[in-house]
Amino acid sequence: MKNLNNYIKKLEKSLEDKLFFLKHIDINDYSLVVEFGCANGRLLRRIEPVIDKEVTKLVGFDINEEIIEIAKMISPEITFLTKWDEVLDILKNTTKKSLIIFSSVWHEINPQYYEKIFNEMKKFTTIVIRDMKEPIQSAEPIDAPTRDRIKKMVPEWQFDEFEAKWGRIDNKKTLYRFLLMYTYLDNWDNEINEDYFSTPWAEINWTLEKDYDIIYLNSYTLEYKKTEIARIFDHHMKDITHHQVIYTRK
User: Fold this and answer.
1) Of the candidates 228, 250, 245, which has an alpha carbon nearest to the alpha carbon of residue 237?
2) Among 218, 210, 247, which residue's Cα sits nearest to residue 127?
3) How far apart are CA 224 and CA 228, in angstroms?
4) In whole angstroms, what is the distance from residue 110 CA to residue 130 CA?
5) Residue-wise pLDDT tens digits, 22-44
6) Which pairs count as long-range contacts for 108-116, CB under 8 Å and 24+ apart, including other chains?
7) Can you give the pLDDT at residue 15?
């Protein structure tokens, strides 16, 4: 990653949104809270002040060793791991309920690993997922002036590379994908290859619905992004961009 610090700062813009679950569950009902794909541990650091440290253990998991080392240096009081087996060892010794958080990480998971991830997530009492979601009216066309106006506001090479990868920006799906992605210039080579709308929401629900109840569900437009897009591009996002759900075992 070319500029890890800038990448992390952009992720932290939506941190409050990622903490939505704290309003809907009692975090101290859980003796283990695991964040899957924790990056530098920012989300867990925000949870840490509100937990009873005698009751709840926080664990961050990420396969990126560089970013985990940063997390360890910043927050030595939180457990950060790069090996999933070590997470499972902690889970085996959990005496109360367990919680796993997937925050803006599902869209990065290769479909070949879906079944494995499903099996692992079902070992937890409660599952929190927050990620991007394709606009409901994804095929709805946008007008040429909107496309041209946005093209003028970003580097020409970035706009051209995006369309070469994801298709012409002439409908809501490609437009929203670009508007969610365009700020990651420092990490563009990686970001352009991420399929933002690939989170298998229907498959996740089908996998969990027999054993879990949904206790919270919300589809919405990310407010800070809506404000940013209106200010920079004079475009008003009126469709969804994100989805939040909390599952708890029946």
Assistant:
1) 228
2) 247
3) 6
4) 17
5) 999 999 999 999 999 999 999 99
6) 108/37, 108/194, 111/198, 111/200, 114/200, 114/203
7) 80
- The phi-psi region of residue 79 (left if phi > 0; otherwise alpha if psi is between -120 and 50; otherwise beta) is beta
Predicted local distance difference test score (pLDDT) of residue 1:
44
pTM score of the predicted model: 0.91
* pLDDT value of residue 12: 54
**Closest by alpha carbon to 172, among 146, 216, 141?**
141
Mean pLDDT of the chain: 92
CA triplet 110, 112, 116: central angle to 5 degrees? 100
- Two tokens at 128? 């929190």
> Which sign, positive or negative, has the C-alpha torsion 15, 21, 25, 30?
negative
- The answer for residues whose C-beta is within 8 angstroms of residue 217's C-beta and 6 or more apart is 244, 245, 246
* CA atoms of 166 and 178, how far apart (whole Å): 9
The label of the residue with tokens 């095929």 reads: 139
CA–CA gap between residue 33 and residue 124 (Å, rounded): 9
Predicted confidence (pLDDT) per residue in 129-165, tens digit: 999 999 999 999 999 999 999 999 999 999 999 999 9
In order of their start, the domains of the chain are: 4-133+199-227+240-249 (3.40.50.150), 136-194 (no CATH)
Per the CB < 8 A criterion, the answer to whether 1 and 7 are in contact is: yes
